[in-house]
Design a protein that fits this description.
Catalyzes the isomerization of 5-dehydro-4-deoxy-D-glucuronate to 3-deoxy-D-glycero-2,5-hexodiulosonate. The protein is mainly beta. The chain is built from 1 helix and 23 strands. Strand 18 and strand 19 form a beta hairpin.
Length: 279
């Protein structure tokens, strides 16, 4: 488990490109046959990539979280960004097609991941997990791709027409802190969020996927009056602290998993900034 310590917006002006990437960009999260994880001290979020090949992979604990089982004091949202696979939680198997989401509540003990369709167009299953501390237990719940609350946002005229699927949220699957969903851009649209916004009570993490190998997303971050950018590839994640804007534009079609943890689960709890106010 890699650790990323919390940062202040005052740190950003002095960071060069390499340090920005080291602190906020998560690369190489998915490796065949491995579980890889990053712990960010922003809201104590854990990001993990689980890529089973052949034999199932079990999500064990990590010394950094000081618990016998990973879910002793945590909950998680899991989205499959690859081919069909399964997540088995304490003996109960859940089938996740691409884009489906599974919420796992506090108290789960044995959680394993398996790929069932490694030869399909989407390759082997690749599971993206976001976890946060939990104060109580909610039931493990599966939401199949496209079955959550759908919101149609943006406009083709401003190149940000997109379908947002809310899975774990205050009006959907219940959780303590985690809010999670998947957004896919419509053909011809490239901006994922514009105008940009912050939400000062929640850390948000983006995982970009279905991006061609030779394409990139330019992800905006930093305070609105002191913005920076990260150049992001397929299946790479960005840690966006509560004080940072998060918006991006791609050189090709893409989708992304968005997930948040913090004090407020209201999706519309945000502070918008007009593009003319960004610096």
């Amino acid at each position: 488990m890699d650790q990323r310590y919390a940062t202040s917006p005052d740190n950003v002006p002095g960071m060069d490109t390499a340090e920005l990437r080291r602190r906020y960009l998560v690369q190489d999260l998915f490796a065949p046959g491995e579980v890889r994880a990053v712990y960010t001290h922003h809201d104590r979020v854990v990001l993990a990539g689980i890529s089973p090949v052949g034999t199932p992979l079990e999500l064990g604990t990590f010394p950094e979280i000081r618990s016998e089982h990973f879910f002793d004091h945590r909950e998680a949202g899991i989205v499959n960004v690859g081919g069909t696979g399964t997540v088995t939680v304490d003996g109960v198997e859940h089938v996740l097609t691409k884009g489906s989401c599974l919420y796992v509540g506090r108290g789960a003990q044995v959680v394993s991941f398996a790929a069932t369709d490694a030869d399909g167009d989407d390759g082997a299953a690749s599971f993206y997990l976001i976890s946060a501390p939990a104060h109580t237990a909610y039931p493990t719940t599966l939401v199949e791709a496209g079955q959550g609350t759908q919101r149609e946002l943006g406009d083709a005229l401003t190149s940000n027409r997109r379908t947002l699927n809310q899975y774990i949220h205050e009006q959907g699957v219940r959780s303590c802190q985690v809010v999670m969903g998947v957004t896919r851009l419509h053909p011809g649209s490239m901006w994922n969020t514009m105008p940009a916004h912050t939400h000062d009570r929640r850390t948000e993490c983006y995982l970009y996927f279905d991006l061609p190998a030779d394409a990139r997303v330019i992800h905006l971050m930093g305070e609105p009056t002191e913005s920076r950018h990260l150049v992001v590839g397929d299946r790479e994640a960005v840690i966006s602290p509560s004080w940072s804007v998060h918006s991006g534009v791609g050189s090709a079609s893409y989708a992304f998993v968005w997930a948040m943890a913090g004090e407020n689960q209201s999706f519309d709890d945000m502070d918008g900034f007009a593009i003319s106010d960004l610096r």
